[in-house]
Design brief:
Helices cover about 70% and strands about 0% of the residues. By secondary structure, the protein is mostly helical. The two termini are about 30 Å apart.
Length: about 450
């Protein structure tokens, strides 16, 4: 990583400070500290802030403070140097313009303003995270913040929902109590799984014994917390993240992390019958129904055979939702430009007997909201970003391809919009854009560092 005790030159490298300019050094140190506090708090908001308004208030207020203390000089460095970041921002801005000036069925003034704010915050978040990627030890600082907060959230949620609450049922599908008093199990699984992947990577690379032991315990605990949500998308994403590790670094390097994951899966499978038994007993006592069976509680309590249950649960109406979305695309203009980011869900969900609120796939959403052009643009920047993450993995920084693969896989059958911050699930920015943006800035930095010695050799006299 870059030297944290230096200043950026052209936004990509770090040059030593003039030892006389102590005030400048202190100012830049303050700016970096504010940036890290802002970003760490934002990430922790996905695990331990009561709702998204607290998280956004933190991010907006701390970003303003950071800008006032020197961040304004750094904010647009990523845009000026990184073509990938400009392409992503251009895609989001194009979706904003399309949704504003072209017909968006059911869109009103409220949706228009809310949409501009939501997409604008996403672009601001990307620029801020690009800048934090140039700070020394940023990956370690962010991973520590995410892992610690996720463990607290998982432990507190288990304690409350399994023991302390008057309606506690041991082994029920885990939700995050710290957010909304019980965040949806899918959202909980995605966020805990994301933290688990980062923790496994920290354990695998730890050099000090204490750090290795701590992150081993954290990783195991977070994998179990993810499995207790019974979210198939989160499980698929966990496997995909480790598959990306194998693809990028080979079996020999990847064996320990992969074995850790599958050992956790195997132990969970073996212990699930006992968890189910206790859960059914708890539920029977609470409801006063002594004849409850596992089949009667299958949607609320961990199954005695989780692997079988994950396979036999069906598509949970996902394909009905996708079919409804596709059926709303009725004209050539819809296929090319979509319905608009802020068009009413009624335009596609009216054919369903219930309102699923969103399309449960960022790729289907991109097609319905932005047409073929938006879907092609999204796939293009994702493939480009994944290539940069793979390039970094070849040079020893495999965490970004692991996290990005987790995010992309998790959002195939879950999530709402890739172009908005304030989506209904709202974890898209965390699991998709955070790793890709950080991978892009690391790619730019290492590319620049590799080219600099070559240029100096060419220019030096023989």
């Amino acid at each position: 990583m870059l030297d944290p005790n230096s200043t950026p030159t052209a936004g990509l490298t770090w040059a030593p400070l003039d030892p006389v300019s102590g005030e400048i050094a202190a100012e830049k140190s303050t700016t970096r500290a504010l940036l890290l506090v802002n970003v760490c708090g934002f990430l922790m908001g996905y695990y331990a802030m009561p709702n998204h308004w607290f998280q956004l208030a933190w991010f907006i207020c701390m970003t303003v403070v950071w800008l006032l203390f020197g961040g304004m000089q750094q904010l647009f460095i990523g845009l000026s140097h990184d073509l990938w970041l400009r392409s992503v921002m251009g895609l989001v801005f194009a979706m904003i313009i399309r949704s504003t000036i072209f017909d968006s069925p059911g869109m009103g003034i409220r949706e228009l303003w809310f949409g501009w704010i939501s997409s604008g915050l996403l672009m601001m978040m990307m620029m801020v995270f690009w800048q934090v990627g140039t700070v020394g030890q940023a990956s370690r600082i962010l991973s520590t913040a995410v892992a610690a907060t996720a463990v607290v959230a998982a432990f507190g949620s288990m304690a409350f929902f399994y023991f302390l609450d008057e309606r506690a049922v041991f082994g029920q599908r885990l939700t995050n109590w710290f957010i909304y008093g019980g965040w949806n199990s899918v959202c909980t699984g995605m966020t805990f799984g994301f933290a688990a992947v980062w923790s496994i990577h920290r354990w695998h690379h730890a050099l000090k014994r204490l750090e290795k032991v701590c992150f081993l315990g954290i990783a195991i605990f977070l994998v179990w917390a993810t499995l207790l949500t019974m979210s198939r998308g989160a499980l698929m994403a966990l496997i995909a993240g480790h598959g990306a590790l194998i693809f990028s670094r080979g079996w020999r390097f990847s064996l320990r992390p992969v074995m850790l994951l599958f050992t956790c899966l195997g132990c969970f499978q073996l212990l699930a019958p006992q968890i189910t038994k206790i859960g059914v007993q708890d539920l029977s006592e609470r409801l006063g129904e002594p004849k409850l069976t596992e089949a009667m509680t299958s949607d609320g309590v961990v199954a005695s055979n989780p692997a079988k249950r994950l396979i036999t649960r069906g598509d949970t109406h996902r394909f009905s939702i996708y079919a409804a979305g596709f059926s709303s695309i009725t004209t050539s203009g819809d296929w090319l430009l979509g319905k608009g980011l802020w068009s009413s869900n009624d335009r596609w969900s009216c054919s369903l007997p219930w309102n699923p609120e969103h399309l449960h796939s960022v790729f289907v959403d991109a097609l319905v909201r932005g047409g073929i052009l938006a879907l092609a643009g999204l796939l293009g920047v994702l493939i480009w970003g994944l290539y940069r993450a793979w390039w970094l993995a070849q040079r020893g920084e495999e965490i970004w391809i692991m996290l990005a693969s987790f995010g992309v896989t998790g959002l195939v059958f879950d999530g709402d919009s890739a172009f908005s911050m304030l989506s209904i699930p709202r974890f898209e920015a965390l699991i998709l854009w955070v790793p890709l943006v950080l991978a892009s800035v690391r790619y730019m930095v290492l590319n620049h560092e590799q080219k600099a010695p070559a240029c100096s050799e060419i220019s030096s006299p023989h």
